[in-house]
Design goal:
It comes from Candidatus Fimihabitans intestinipullorum. By secondary structure, this protein is mainly alpha-helical. 54% of the residues lie in helices and 7% in strands. The protein has one domain: Intergrase catalytic core (hpI Integrase, Chain A). A hairpin with a 6-residue loop joins strand 1 and strand 2.
Length: 151
């Protein structure tokens, strides 16, 4: 979900199984900004989430990502980081990765594929497109590389 939604780990941790999620819609209030985010998920992500819910025997009202400490407690940022690092190690990722990497990965890839900085700005709830460009580390060198990639 992290690489397909641009949500922060704090927001992912608060997701609960509900009718909207099961119908392929994601609604959340961002912990950092208090702003609401809502969108329809693509078919593959919705399918993956349904399979995850079924595989983990989750029910309506339960946290999607639970901590290892007791039933129906949200995963902590620290625990999510440890799990993500373990998964990355299992599949051979050898570069630094953290929970926020998922959001940045989404943002950078979205911009490289679409070039639509204004929509990305809105998705990330940034105050300006300049903030968004800085966030994805976009500079003149990246612009040149992008141009060469699409030639």
């Amino acid at each position: 979900i992290g690489v397909n939604s641009a949500l922060r780990i704090e927001d992912l941790a608060q997701l609960k199984v509900d009718d909207n999620l099961l119908r392929g819609y994601l609604y959340t209030r961002e912990m950092k900004t208090g702003k609401e985010q809502s969108f329809e998920m693509n078919d593959q992500l919705a399918k993956d989430i349904k399979e995850y819910i079924k595989r983990n025997n989750l029910y309506t009202g339960e946290y999607l990502f639970q901590s290892g400490k007791g039933k129906n407690k949200p995963i902590t940022r620290q625990n999510a980081y440890i799990r993500l690092r373990n998964y990355a190690d299992e599949v051979g990722v050898r570069y630094p990765i953290g929970c926020h990497s998922m959001r940045k990965f989404f943002a950078r890839n979205y911009y490289e594929k679409t070039g639509d900085i204004l929509t990305l700005q809105k998705m990330l709830n940034h105050s300006s497109y300049i903030v968004t460009l800085r966030y994805i580390c976009w500079d003149d060198h990246a612009q040149i590389a992008r141009k060469e990639t699409y030639i």
